[in-house]
Specification:
The protein is α+β, with helices and mostly antiparallel strands and 673 residues long. A hairpin with a 7-residue loop joins β17 (375-379) and β18 (387-392). The model has no long low-confidence stretch (mean pLDDT 89). It binds 8-methoxy-2,3-dimethylquinoxalin-5-ol (I6G).
Length: 673
C-alpha cells in the first residue's frame, strides 16, 4: 500500500518536473493548465497525507520555472512566491476561517481584491526612480534578466514621477498580451502560414523571452502591477490598496478592477461579477485574488512554504481541457461554406460540457496537424465558440487521416474551393437544402426582387413547412396555403400574393443580382446587364468574355461561369422565367461614335503610372474591349514592366505592342480631341 503511494508520488514528481520544463522553459506546454493543476493538487494531497514521503525538493514546493541558460540570472533578494488557490466558495470560506482563527480578532479583515491576470510574473527594480533591472519570476529564487525586452513595453515607465519615490523599490506584476492584440497577431500569423500562439499567456511569455529585443518590441505587450517586493529608504502606506494607488501616482499601471471588500460575501460577489464580466476586459484573467489589506496583519500572518497566508487566488473554471478527437463532420452553412466540425469525447471546459468544436477550414486542420484519434486541447475563451487550439504529442497508432469531402454532404453537388480562398463551398447554390433559406431570402430582398412581406421569418417558415424549395416555387403559392401560417392571416396572405405578381416586372440587373451568384453585387450585376444585354448572352459567356466587363476580374468571372454551368441553377432560372418574370429590353449604349469601338486590347505586365483597373476603364470608355488573353483577334497589347508570356505570344502573332508610355500618349491623344 505505502509502496504504491510512494510510487505514485515519485511518478507525479517526475511528470510535473517534465511539464515545468515544457511550460516555463520552452513556453510550449504539452498538457493543459487544468491537467497540470490537478497533478500538483494530487501530489500535494498525497504528500500531506503521507508526510514521511514529503521532501523539500518536491516540485510541489516550487513556484514555477527553471532558468534558461541564454539569459543572465538574477537572484531575487526577496523570493517571488506564488499564490495558493481556492476553487470553490467552500474552499474560500475555509481560507477566510483559517485567517480569522490565526488573527484571533473579532472583526473581519478588509480584503483588497484584484483580477488575476493570465500572464507572466515579473519584477521591476527601480533605483533612484530609474528602471534598473527587470527579471522573470523563474523558480521564485532565481529569474532571468529580461531588462532589454521589458524596456520595450510601452506602459512601463523608465523613470518614476512624483515625490517620495523610494531610493530602491521593486515592483511586481504581470506582463500580458491584451486579447485584441493576441487575436490580431494570430490572424496575421495564419495569413503568413506561421504558427499561432495557443493563448495570450503563451504569447506574452514567448514574446518576453526573446533573445532579440527587436522582436519583443514588435509584440504589443502590457504590464500591470500587483505588489511590492524589495524596498530601501522609502515610506509606504499601511494598506495594500493605498500602496497600489501610490504606485499609480508614480506612473505605474494598475488594472481598473481593484477594490476593497470584506467577508466571504464580498469576495464571492466580486468573483461572480468578474466571472460574468471577464469578456469585457481587455486582458485575459483566470481568476480573482484576495489579499488581506492591512500590511501589519499580513506580517502577522506570514507565509507557508511557498505562498503568503494572507492572500489566495480564486480560480475560474478552466478554459482549456484536453480530450480526444473522435470524428470530423462537415457542415454546410447558409452560404454554402463547408465547415469541418470536431466531434470530441465530451469534456467539461469553462463551466460547460463540450462535444463539438469548429475546425474552421481545411488549412486549420493542416495547421493543427490533426488526425482522428488525436489528443487535442479544447479552449472555450470568453463568449467565443469552442476551438481546438492544438494537438498534444500523445502517441496513437490508430489515428486516421481526415479526408475533406469533394461532394456536398447535403445535396451531393461538387464542392469548390477557389485559389486564394480558405473556405470551400458547396456549388449547389439555389438547389442545396442547406443554402435554400439564405438563397430565397436574398432573392426576395429589397435590392434584388424587392418582394414586400417576404422577410427572413416568412421565408424560414415557408421552407420549414415544405411549401417552397427554390425561389421559383414562390410563384406557385396560393392564398389558401398562406393564411394559416403563423402571424399571417388573410389580409397579409393576399398582400403577399399581390407582391409576388408585382415583382415579376423587374430589370435584368436586378434579376442577375437576385440569383445570388458569389461576388456579384449590385454594381457588378448592373455592369453585366449593360454589357450582355440579354440573359442568354450572359449564360453563354466564357471567362475571357466576362473579363471584358467593367470591374469583372478573374474571380468574379470564374464564379459566374461556374454558376451557369450548374444544371440545377439553369432549371431554377427556367422556372422563374416560366412563372412570368420579365424585364424591358436594354438598348445597347450608343458606342459607335467612340474612337476604339471594335478594337480589343490586352494589358500585361506591371503598370507604374496608373493602376491596371484605371487603364482598363480608360480604354473601355473609348469603346475598346479589354481582354485577359492574347489571340489572333487582339488588336494591341500594352506591355508594362516584366511582361511575360502574353508579350511573347503577341510577338509570335505579330500583334502591335505598345509600352505604358505609348498607352499614356494614346489616351492623351483622344483627350485632346
Ligand atoms: O502571481 C500573482 C498574480 C497576481 C501574485 C499576486 C497577484 O495579485 C493580483 N499577488 C501576490 C502577492 C503573489 N503573486 C505572490
Amino acid at each position: 500500500m505505502t509502496n504504491s503511494v510512494k510510487d505514485t508520488i515519485l511518478k507525479l514528481r517526475e511528470q510535473i518536473t517534465l511539464h515545468n520544463i515544457h511550460y516555463h522553459t520552452h513556453d510550449s506546454p504539452i498538457i493543459t493548465d487544468a491537467e497540470y493543476d490537478r497533478k500538483i493538487q494530487q501530489l500535494r494531497e498525497l504528500e500531506q497525507q503521507n508526510p514521511q514521503f514529503d521532501t523539500p525538493d518536491s516540485p510541489s514546493h516550487k513556484v514555477g520555472g527553471t532558468v534558461l541558460d541564454t539569459f543572465s540570472k538574477v537572484k531575487h533578494e526577496i523570493p517571488m512566491l506564488s499564490l495558493g488557490n481556492v476553487f470553490s466558495s467552500e474552499e474560500l470560506s475555509d481560507f477566510i476561517e483559517r485567517l480569522n482563527n490565526r488573527l484571533n480578532s473579532t472583526t473581519e479583515p478588509l480584503f483588497c481584491v484584484e483580477p488575476k491576470l493570465d500572464g507572466l510574473a515579473i519584477s521591476l527594480l527601480y533605483q533612484q526612480g530609474i528602471l534598473f533591472r527587470a527579471a522573470t519570476r523563474g523558480d521564485g529564487n532565481v529569474g532571468e534578466d529580461v531588462t532589454h525586452n521589458v524596456k520595450t513595453i510601452r506602459n512601463i515607465p523608465h523613470i518614476l514621477k512624483g515625490d517620495n519615490v523610494p531610493d530602491t523599490i521593486e515592483i511586481r506584476g504581470e506582463v500580458v498580451m491584451p486579447i485584441a492584440a493576441f487575436n490580431t497577431y494570430n490572424e496575421k500569423a495564419t495569413q503568413k502560414g506561421e504558427k499561432n500562439f495557443a493563448n495570450p499567456r503563451n504569447a506574452a511569455a514567448g514574446s518576453l523571452r526573446q533573445l532579440d529585443s527587436k522582436i519583443t518590441a514588435k509584440r504589443p505587450l502590457a504590464f500591470y502591477c500587483y505588489g511590492i517586493g524589495l524596498l530601501k529608504k522609502g515610506i509606504l502606506p499601511n494598506s495594500h490598496y493605498q500602496r497600489l494607488q501610490l504606485l499609480k501616482q508614480w506612473g505605474l499601471p494598475l488594472t481598473n478592477e481593484i477594490e476593497i471588500t470584506t467577508g466571504i460575501k464580498g469576495c464571492m460577489d466580486y468573483y461572480q461579477f468578474m466571472l460574468e464580466n471577464r469578456n469585457t476586459l481587455p486582458y485575459e484573467i483566470d481568476g480573482t485574488v484576495y489579499k488581506v489589506d492591512d500590511i501589519a496583519l499580513q506580517q502577522q500572518l506570514g507565509f507557508i512554504s511557498r505562498a503568503p497566508r494572507w492572500a489566495t487566488a480564486h480560480k475560474f473554471p478552466a478554459q482549456e481541457e484536453q480530450t480526444v478527437l473522435l470524428n470530423v463532420e462537415f457542415q454546410v452553412g447558409r452560404t454554402g461554406a463547408i465547415t469541418p466540425v470536431a466531434i470530441l469525447e465530451p469534456v467539461f471546459v469553462g463551466g460547460v460540457t463540450i462535444s463539438r468544436a469548429s475546425l474552421h477550414n481545411q488549412d486549420e486542420i493542416e495547421r493543427l496537424g490533426l488526425k482522428i484519434g488525436d489528443t487535442v486541447v479544447v479552449r472555450r475563451a470568453a463568449d467565443v465558440i469552442p476551438q481546438v487550439t492544438r494537438t498534444l504529442p500523445v502517441k496513437n497508432r490508430q489515428s486516421k487521416a481526415i479526408i475533406f469531402p469533394v461532394l456536398c454532404p447535403v445535396c451531393n453537388s461538387e464542392i469548390e474551393r477557389f485559389e486564394d480562398e480558405a473556405v470551400a463551398r458547396c456549388s449547389g447554390g439555389l438547389y442545396c437544402a442547406a443554402q435554400r433559406k439564405e438563397a430565397i431570402q436574398y432573392f426576395c430582398s429589397r435590392k434584388a426582387m424587392n418582394i414586400d412581406g417576404l422577410g427572413e421569418k416568412v421565408v424560414d417558415l415557408l421552407v420549414d413547412e415544405n411549401l417552397i424549395n427554390t425561389p421559383a416555387d414562390l410563384f406557385n403559392l396560393k392564398t389558401e396555403q398562406l393564411v394559416d401560417l403563423e402571424r399571417m392571416g388573410p389580409k397579409k396572405a393576399e398582400n403577399l400574393i399581390q407582391a409576388l405578381i408585382n415583382c415579376k416586372q423587374t430589370t435584368l440587373a436586378k434579376f442577375i443580382l437576385s440569383l445570388g451568384i458569389r461576388e456579384v453585387g449590385e454594381a457588378t450585376a448592373k455592369n453585366l446587364a449593360e454589357f450582355f444585354l440579354t440573359l442568354d448572352a450572359l449564360k453563354q459567356a466564357d471567362t475571357e468574355k466576362l473579363l471584358e466587363v467593367d470591374d469583372v476580374g478573374e474571380i468574379v468571372a470564374k464564379h459566374v461561369v461556374y454558376f451557369f454551368r450548374q444544371t440545377h441553377n439553369l432549371k431554377v432560372i427556367d422556372a422563374l422565367l416560366q412563372a412570368g418574370i420579365q424585364w424591358p429590353t436594354i438598348a445597347a449604349k450608343e458606342k459607335q461614335s467612340l474612337p476604339l469601338v471594335g478594337k480589343t486590347y490586352v494589358l500585361t505586365g506591371t503598370l507604374t503610372q496608373m493602376k491596371r483597373a484605371a487603364a482598363k476603364e480608360a480604354l473601355q470608355a473609348l469603346g475598346a474591349k479589354v481582354s485577359g488573353s492574347v489571340s489572333a483577334k487582339t488588336d494591341c497589347v500594352v506591355a508594362g514592366e516584366s511582361a511575360g508570356s502574353k508579350l511573347s505570344k503577341a510577338q509570335e502573332l505579330n500583334i502591335p505592342i505598345i509600352d505604358e508610355d505609348g498607352l499614356v500618349d494614346l489616351l492623351a491623344s483622344f483627350k485632346a480631341h
